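In the design runs reported in the main text, the only information available to the sequence generator was the tokenized backbone. The following block is the verbatim input for one such run; it is reproduced so that readers can re-run the procedure and compare outputs position by position.
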């Protein structure tokens, strides 16, 4: 095992200004530092570093999960107040509902989960606690 003093995750984006508006203004994550990119404080104590990359290619997998108490309320807020669109996928173990939520709890196949993208196309998810 390594002896690390701390750790954080990082992702790239095509525009740091768009990322700042999305992650700080829309998702309301705490910005700790913006000297070399965006260092964000995540709920629960983790950190995410976002940096601009000219040839950015969005991740094809979920890069950040937000555990929420009520997925419907969170979708109402993000879709209604911020126009966020939720993704639909054909390869899920159960169908997604009209809101894009995979209702895993009801099907006894894991959590309720819904996916959306940041402005750079990176995939994020809401997972109901």
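Verbatim output:
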């Amino acid at each position: 095992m390594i002896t690390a003093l701390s750790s954080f995750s990082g992702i790239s984006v095509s525009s740091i200004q768009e990322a700042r508006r999305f992650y700080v203004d829309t998702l309301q994550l705490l910005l700790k530092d913006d000297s070399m990119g965006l260092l964000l404080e995540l709920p629960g104590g983790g950190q995410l570093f976002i940096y601009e990359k000219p040839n950015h290619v969005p991740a094809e997998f979920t890069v950040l999960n937000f555990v929420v108490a009520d997925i419907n309320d969170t979708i109402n807020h993000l879709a209604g107040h911020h126009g966020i669109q939720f993704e639909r996928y054909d390869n899920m173990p159960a169908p997604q509902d009209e809101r894009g939520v995979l209702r895993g709890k009801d099907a006894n196949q894991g959590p309720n989960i819904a996916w959306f993208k940041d402005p750079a196309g990176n995939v994020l998810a809401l997972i109901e606690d």
